C-alpha cells in the first residue's frame, strides 16, 4: 500500500495519506498542500454540525 506522511496542521501529529483517499489525491496534485488529520477533521465536522444545529434551533 502506498501512502504519504503528512503533518496535521492542527495537532501536529504525523499521519498517513493512504492511496485512494481524497487527501492522497489532493496531495498528489499539490505536494505543498497541508492537511488536518482525520481526528481533527472529524472534530471540525462535529463542531460545524453543532454550530449549524445551534443556528437553526434558536
Ligand atoms: Zn490533527
Topology (elements, then pairings):
Blueprint: E1 3-7, E2 14-18, H1 22-29, H2 38-57
Antiparallel strand pairs: 1-2
Bound molecules: zinc ion.
Residues 8, 10-11, 13, 36-37, 39-40 line the site of zinc ion.
Outline the structure in words.
- This protein is of the alpha+beta class and 58 residues long.
- The protein has helices at residues 22-29, 38-57, and strands at residues 3-7, 14-18.
- Strands 1-2 form a two-stranded antiparallel sheet.
- The relative contact order is 0.18.
- The mean pLDDT is 89.
- The protein binds zinc ion.
- Zinc ion binds next to α2.
- Residues 8, 10-11, 13, 36-37, 39-40 line the site of zinc ion (ZN).
Amino acid at each position: 500500500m502506498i501512502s504519504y506522511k503528512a503533518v496535521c496542521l492542527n495537532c501536529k501529529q504525523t499521519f498517513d495519506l493512504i492511496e485512494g483517499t481524497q487527501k492522497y489525491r489532493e496531495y498528489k496534485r499539490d505536494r505543498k498542500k497541508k492537511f488536518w488529520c482525520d481526528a481533527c477533521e472529524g472534530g471540525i465536522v462535529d463542531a460545524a454540525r453543532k454550530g449549524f444545529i445551534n443556528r437553526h434551533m434558536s
